[in-house]
Amino acid sequence: MGSQGKTVFRRSPVTRFPDILHRALFKSFSLLGRRSQGAVLRRYFDWWHRRPDPWQLSTDTYEQHKYQTTLEQLPDAAYRRVLEAGCSEGVFTELLATAYPDADITGVDISEKALERARLRNGEFADRVRFVHADILDHDLQAGFDLVVCAETLYYVGGGDRLRHASHRLTSLLAAGGILVLVHPWPEARRLHRFADAAPGLSKIGERVERDAHRPFSVSLYRAARESRTVS
């Protein structure tokens, strides 16, 4: 697997009206206090996962293409500790566990219902894959991950200070030289990834923009500085 350090431009993206409504709903949640927002999101996503695989992550060809594109961009490395933030039911977690058989992997999600299914899906990897019920805005995970992946998640936290805080929390989990991967709809990714773009001690090493999908997306890659650093 190798990182491609250039942006690939194809057709122009089309903003879908359901996506606009979706963003507006979660923007309104971000007006609440951080704890209240977290409580609302937990209830919402537990309700959303009342039925298995509500986004059809395991079967949808678009989602499978996005997963494969993300894996193809990862730099070749022996990742020992991997974190997936917003893992949902563990579909991509399973792909990570298969691609990196020597890695210890942690999946994090705000929905316990989703995590119950993630544990079942990844049962064969139970000796090295664990799932943690937590909010990326408020967690007690220990730093030192060689790879941190966050896909289709940052638009749920809101904008401004909330987005800055979430980006910094993700960045602070990296080991020296670790890789952060952010995957979000394009061109919204420009806004969602802007704090990672500007983070001290973090260098952008690649970006792939898929414009030929019915829902264009960006895979952005960052590398933490080799020396120790502090991220606020």
TrEMBL record:
GO biological process, alphabetically ordered: methylation; oligosaccharide biosynthetic process
Gene Ontology MF annotations: S-adenosylmethionine-dependent methyltransferase activity
Keyword Methyltransferase recorded: yes
Keywords, comma-separated and alphabetical: Methyltransferase, Transferase
Record's keyword annotation contains Cytoplasm: no
UniProt xrefs under Pfam families: NodS (PF05401)
CDD domains: AdoMet_MTases
The protein's name: Methyltransferase domain-containing protein
